Hints:
By secondary structure, the chain is of the alpha+beta class. It has ten helices and eleven strands.
Amino acid sequence: MLSSIKVFAPATVANVACGFDVLGFALHHPGDEVIMKLADHKQVIIKEITGDDGKLSLQAEKNTVSVTVQQYLNFFGLAQGVEIWLHKKMPLGSGLGSSAASAVAGLVAINELLGRLKPTADLLPWAMEGERVACGSAHADNVAPSLLGGMVLVRSYSPLAVCKIPVPAELVAVVVNPHLELSTAVSRGVLPKEIKLSTAVKQWGNVGGLVAGFCTSNFDLISQSLQDHVAEPLRACLIPHFQAVKQAALDSGALGSSISGAGPSIFALCRGEESAQKVAKAMSKVFENEQIGCNVYVSAINQEGAKIIG
């Protein structure tokens, strides 16, 4: 049995415009890395966190990477101690599933160290509980693609049921992360408890159209369906220059553009690498013209998800 391991879990784009809390996909980069070692003591201890500017707690009961590991151990009745080194390779509060990546990496690490007591897909409920610690909601649209890779649909939360959706090989994502922080709690706070039936019908149509477009490689249908009538209209005002960045993406040939997760990152889906590079340049230029720094990520859909790297 291994005594130490290093795991990478990728960043994710959740919602994918119309699929609030039910659609998400994994990127190849950025992501989080977790190093975990089995220990002689019986505690779950975070030894070090890097890349967070000191913002994350080292207390095991307050960090998603350790909370999920402890729940895993409790489920099996194991008093096994572990020591964790968490290396944040992605910005916090970015809308890229930072807390999800940490939780997923920790779970994959402990599961592997203990001899794979559960199939990878069965780790998902614990990863969702990590999200509850981070933002108060146990949603799966970040943790599922980070864990499993690909484009993931959460068909049901009760009972939990997820499935991977095939996507065209040419599909490339652009994500622009402005150097601004927007908490998931704030972003969720602007959303209504109820929506009009007419709004729901439009949203359902787009979700169905988007899934159909992915499955049939119908880029026109994908483009037509990448519209959010629920969250984006209310969250756009929380992200400076959102409309200008989105319009720049569309004018440069993107299939569609919207808010990544809770924001402030903005994503676009494109057909092919050449188009994606052009879109990335146009989107980032808007922020640069406003003297707002940003990170730009261009990635095909990561079909692998979390993986062991050492």
